[in-house]
Design a protein that fits this description.
Blueprint: H1 8-22, H2 33-58, H3 62-76, H4 79-91, H5 99-110, H6 115-127, H7 135-145, H8 147-164, H9 172-190, H10 195-207, H11 215-227, H12 233-240
Length: 245
């Protein structure tokens, strides 16, 4: 199949943001502001495109949805569009069924931070569907998309349990232990990279959960998350970039 090339401008912006943030100091967080604003300016058009595609899918107009999805990939480098293309190729809806094409689009979206594509790609590698069976790559994508993040979340809630005393006696030692475990896992995922992990690390620094409260570190992690397409970071960035109190 012909490979659809993502928007040069959008993809270059994302790659530049990732490269700049990979070794950024806390003071560099503000440097992403202009890139973030340009990214956000594109979101209304991306959302409008997605609404049109969803309407086609709801109406089972799969043949019309295929070019619309490829246009969203080309114009906006939209990971959701790539993941949806993978689903349509996997099911043979609106296009000839092709597990290799499905895996191609899952990989494309997984590399851009789409968690659903990461899960599907892990399953593809695990079972050799559309790609050669590769347990190491399956483990890698499961590691980013599923297991460790759930473990980090569990550790965080365990810390809250021992802090509140609702389900177990208050135990500050265990609270600190589980907070530290959660942060350790999130930092490892951040190196993978993972937008969701970066977002939660930003929340930790913004709220002082297990670390000293640090606005610049929080903003840096939220900017990393957005560079990986994790949109919940938008509201956090706007809040942190607002007037200081």
């Amino acid at each position: 199949m012909a490979v659809v090339t993502p928007s040069v401008v959008m993809l270059a912006l994302l790659l530049a943001m990732r490269a700049a943030l990979a070794s950024a100091s806390p003071d560099a967080a503000g440097a992403c502001a202009a890139d973030v604003h340009r990214y956000l300016e594109r979101r209304p058009a991306v959302r409008a495109s997605e609404r049109e595609i969803i309407a086609l899918l709801d109406a089972k107009q799969y043949r019309r949805a295929i070019p619309a999805l490829k246009s969203a990939v080309t114009r906006y480098a939209d990971p959701w569009a790539g993941d949806t293309l993978g689903d349509l190729y996997a099911a043979g809806l609106g296009v000839g069924r092709s597990t290799s094409a499905a895996a191609h689009w899952y990989l494309w979206s997984a590399e851009r931070g789409d968690p659903f594509a990461q899960w599907r790609l892990a399953d593809s590698y695990l079972n050799g569907v559309g790609v050669g069976r590769d347990t190491a790559r399956a483990a890698y994508w499961f590691r980013i998309g599923i297991a460790p993040y759930e473990l980090a979340r569990s550790d965080y809630w365990l810390a809250g349990t021992f802090a509140s005393g609702n389900l177990a006696p208050v135990n500050r030692v265990k609270q600190r232990y589980y907070l530290n475990e959660s942060l350790r896992i999130l930092r490892r995922l951040s190196r993978e990279p993972s937008g969701e992990a970066d977002f939660d690390l930003g929340r930790a620094y913004a709220g002082g959960y297990g670390v000293a409260r640090d606005r610049q570190q929080a903003l840096s992690y939220f900017c990393r998350a957005l560079a990986l397409g994790y949109e919940p970071a938008v509201a956090r960035i706007r809040k942190l970039q607002g007037p200081h109190r």
